[in-house]
Amino acid sequence: MAFSLLVPASVFLLALFCRHGTALQQLTHDDGCVHMPIVHSTNVDYFSSKRGVQLQLANRSDIAYYAQLSIGTPPQPVFVQLDTGSFELWVNPDCTAVTDSDAAFCEQAGQYDTTKSSTAASLGTNRTLRYGIGTANISYFTDTITLAGSPTTLQAVQFGVATVSEDAFSGILGIGYGKGVATRYLNFVDQLRAQNATRVKAYTLALGSKDAQEGVIVFGGVDTSKFAGPLARLPVLPADQSPDGVPRFWVDMQSVSITPPPNGVGRVYEGSGMPVFLDSGSTMTLLPPNLTAAIAGNFGARTADDNGFYRIDCALARMNGTLDFAFDGVTVKVPYKELMREVPTDPPACFLGIMASEKFTLLGDTFLRSAYTVFDLETDSIWMAQATDCGSSPAALNSVQDLSSVTGACGLSDLADSASGTLVPSSDPESIDGGGAEPTRSAGSEASGTVAGSQDTGRARLTSGTSRCFGSGVGLALSLGIVLVLHIFS
Ligand SMILES: *[C@@H]1O[C@H](CO)[C@@H](O)[C@H](O)[C@H]1NC(C)=O
Ligand SMILES: *[C@@H]1O[C@H](CO)[C@@H](O)[C@H](O)[C@H]1NC(C)=O
Ligand SMILES: *[C@@H]1O[C@H](CO)[C@@H](O)[C@H](O)[C@H]1NC(C)=O
Ligand SMILES: *[C@@H]1O[C@H](CO)[C@@H](O)[C@H](O)[C@H]1NC(C)=O
Ligand SMILES: *[C@@H]1O[C@H](CO)[C@@H](O)[C@H](O)[C@H]1NC(C)=O
Ligand SMILES: *[C@@H]1O[C@H](CO)[C@@H](O)[C@H](O)[C@H]1NC(C)=O
């Protein structure tokens, strides 16, 4: 569900950093597999005409993650927020209904004009969609949709065109369950499968670390260069057994623990086993108030501010500690830096990426950046591993059964070796407050560092996206996965 932060809180001002963009993939056939080079957003050949947009969108940072869709005939490009926690696609947020800085972003995200598309058809029905943050009144239409850089054109996809919205600065691409489960019609993910753009109803989300500056979503496939080892399979809890009765990606979390920097004493949080849902549409992770308070206390924050944010020392971002989320068969270690929201105000302000909620327990972007996650809507499973990054090798799946034998191409040494503190259950933890108040980095150095650094990263990716394929080469040569690249920095 959409829980992305708007920018009302004076705390956040204009300073939220993010980059998202679009990708151009060229399919090449080699050794019986399909791999798609990724063009980085700093590739001027492709992005120069959009550079202004890139810079604007870059301000949105780790607040939310977007994909670009082209809707209609001729195609009209719009950015939509990727949301595993909702089910429907809609566009055309009311940009006059958000604050100034959000309005500027909102306009850059693009609008779709039904009257300018020869293939648009109104279904004559309306609906109100409500999110954790925001609402939209939509009218349903069908039209063709192409994915940036993909050869696939989906025909007559149903989606909403907003007539009015509140607290929404882009449209939303809900990639949760569709027809027969959460919607009465084939949603976007259903259509990819139904129109043979993918062979399986499954997709992989690897948002990427803040430093990686890019992430990837592969519809119908995996990217084995984003994790090491096997994938753990977690059953999705049926809606009737889930806390809110909604068919989201609910899984059982066994525990949350903290592994402080070397020499610190770790702690397993009491009563931290609970169902949680995976929600890319939420900037923050939401946990029960007492658990959140216990974690915040270990980060040196006693109380939340008026907006519910726990302010913490920016120096923590440089420390080699992790917050560890354990599931059956996999523990995802989230480095402090990834868990934190670093806002480049002057001086910089940092916040814990977890907020208290009585209502929801969900793992948002502050968790998902550190996880490699396959959402398998065929066998109702989440396949999960610790995220890492050793290149790019997107590959299509012929069958979701293959996920049990897919192994990450990265070495274990690619995983950040940050967990060398001792971990013991404890109810009386030492504070791990970082001490020094020196800013991690200034807004200025962040911006300039990104431009120089990301270009190199992009080149490295292009050349390393070679022949890492899995399974039998024969089937793979014919099957396609669809890859969107999310460009991110923070
Ligand atoms: C985005 O960032 C750029 C460069 O830091 C800045 O000049 C611009 O004012 C920002 N725009 C918004 C809407 O925050
Ligand atoms: C749907 O909303 C549109 C725009 O607000 C309105 O013109 C139309 O009458 C509504 N249709 C129905 C069936 O309520
Ligand atoms: C949105 O739709 C709801 C339910 O139909 C309606 O009550 C509300 O007035 C609509 N909002 C606006 C601003 O039209
Ligand atoms: C998808 O592929 C199946 C099996 O090859 C075929 O029966 C079906 O007609 C195809 N659907 C579309 C929309 O191309
Ligand atoms: C939070 O409260 C629940 C229910 O009262 C309890 O089971 C759990 O141990 C508490 N957790 C912490 C970290 O205090
Ligand atoms: C964190 O770990 C890295 C790699 O092991 C090391 O280079 C760095 O000095 C460590 N940082 C701190 C603050 O201990």
UniProtKB/TrEMBL annotation:
Residue ranges of every copy of the Peptidase A1 domain listed in the record: 65-385
Question: Which residues belong to the signal peptide in this entry?
Answer: 1-23
- Ribosomal protein is among the record's keywords: no
One Gene Ontology BP term is:
proteolysis
InterPro entries named in the record: Aspartic_peptidase_A1 (IPR001461), PEPTIDASE_A1 (IPR033121), Peptidase_aspartic_dom_sf (IPR021109), SAP-like (IPR033876)
Pfam families in alphabetical order: Asp
The portions of this protein that span the membrane are 470-489
One GO molecular-function entry: aspartic-type endopeptidase activity
Reply yes or no: does the keyword Signal apply.
Answer: yes
Q: PROSITE patterns, per this entry?
A: PEPTIDASE_A1
Q: What does UniProt list as catalytic?
A: 83, 279
Alphabetical UniProt keywords? Aspartyl protease, Hydrolase, Membrane, Protease, Signal, Transmembrane, Transmembrane helix
Q: Where is the composition biased (Polar residues)?
A: 419-429, 442-459
- Give the top-rank taxon of the lineage listed in the UniProt record for this protein: Eukaryota
Chain segments carrying region Disordered: 418-459
The text of the family note is: Belongs to the peptidase A1 family.
Name under which the protein is recorded: Acid protease
Origin species, per record, is Parathielavia hyrcaniae
